[in-house]
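Extended Data, panel c. Modelled sequence:
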Amino acid sequence: MYYQYFEDMDKVKTASDNPLKIVKNIYMVKQSNKGEVLEEIKPGTRLIAGDKLTVRLRVISDRSMDYVHLKDWRGSGLEPVSNLSGYRYAGGISFYENVKDLATHFYIDHLPKGDHIIEYSLRIIHKGEYSGGLATLQSMYAPEFSSHSSGIKLEVR
């Protein structure tokens, strides 16, 4: 038996009390004299179509695990800067990144114990108010080990 309910993505809170944890932050990329600077998006942040965003996924595991699937849902007005799927290495882990229409999937063969960061870039395409999406993390062979991030609301003018 399981319990299912529906909620707007931007109102979902982070899952807690799990061996796996995922934290999703979205940053606006701004140009400065020193190069690119990341500014975290918070409620009231002014966004416009054409802005470049960086998604930072922080994966925290209290044990080593094999075959973990990380799925990051994108907001409807966002498109990935890179559409190429392939093997990548970041944050001390190697993974296969698979870019799809609604989400980007990360297939991690081995997730060592600890704190790991995965980043990728998006571009804002449309005006409006919409959810920035959530990230879900689950062991493929032990589905009881799963987690999800909190939702984020984006307002594009």
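The two ends are 44 Å apart (CA to CA). This feature is highlighted in the accompanying rendering.
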